[in-house]
């Protein structure tokens, strides 16, 4: 069972970035499945690290594309990414220290930020990136 399914309502209109979003959703769903199946920490840790790594790489790629297109809301978007990164890295750090485990609250948070950000700020850049020929 997946927490989010990619569907066209999540499309930002840029193929490469849609593909990255699909990868993030898949990584999140793997974490969810591991939680449902009650996997041990040594199995869930790498999945959480993978999601954090994909997130960092995706934000770098997305910001580079917005920069190339001189996207006017780049600064606001970068600030949002920085905040999301801080929150995800915070979870990873606490998980590594053993302060938290994989739980519904963590999954809900990750699922919520991912879908809210893609459907909000990410979808806003689609028309600009397409008009400015970087896709
Ligand atoms: Fe974004
Ligand atoms: Fe994104």
Give structural notes.
By secondary structure, the protein is mainly alpha-helical. 76% of the residues lie in helices and 0% in strands. The structure holds fe (ii) ion (FE2) (2 copies). One fe (ii) ion is lined by residues 21, 58, 62, 118, 122.
Give the cofactors and ligands: fe (ii) ion
- Mean pLDDT metric: 91
Q: How much helicity do the residues have? A: over 70%
How many beta-strand runs?
0
Beta-strand portion reads under 5%
Order of secondary-structure elements: HHHH
Spans of at least 5 consecutive residues whose pLDDT stays below 50 are none
What's the helix count?
Answer: 4
Task: Summarize the SSE layout with pairings.
Blueprint lengths: L14 H22 L4 H28 L5 H24 L6 H28 L4
Helix pairs in contact: 1-2, 1-4, 2-3, 3-4
Bound molecules: fe (ii) ion (2 copies).
Features:
single chain, 135 residues, mainly alpha, 4 helices, elongated, binds fe (ii) ion
Nutshell version of this structure?
With 135 residues, this protein is mainly alpha-helical. The protein has helices spanning 15-36, 41-68, 74-97, 104-131. The longest helix is centred in the middle third of the chain and has 28 residues, at 41-68.
């Amino acid at each position: 069972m997946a927490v989010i399914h990619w569907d066209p309502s999540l499309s930002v209109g840029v193929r490469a970035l849609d593909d990255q979003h699909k990868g993030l959703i898949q990584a999140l769903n793997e974490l969810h499945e591991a939680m449902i199946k009650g996997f041990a920490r040594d199995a869930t840790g790498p999945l959480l690290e993978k999601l954090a790594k994909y997130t960092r790489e995706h934000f770098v790629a997305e910001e580079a594309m917005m920069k190339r297109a001189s996207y006017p809301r780049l600064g606001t978007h970068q600030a949002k990414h920085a905040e999301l990164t801080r929150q995800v890295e915070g979870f990873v750090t606490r998980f590594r220290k053993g302060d938290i485990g994989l739980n519904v609250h963590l999954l809900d948070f990750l699922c919520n930020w991912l879908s809210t950000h893609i459907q909000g700020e990410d979808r806003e850049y689609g028309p600009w990136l397409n008009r400015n020929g970087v896709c």
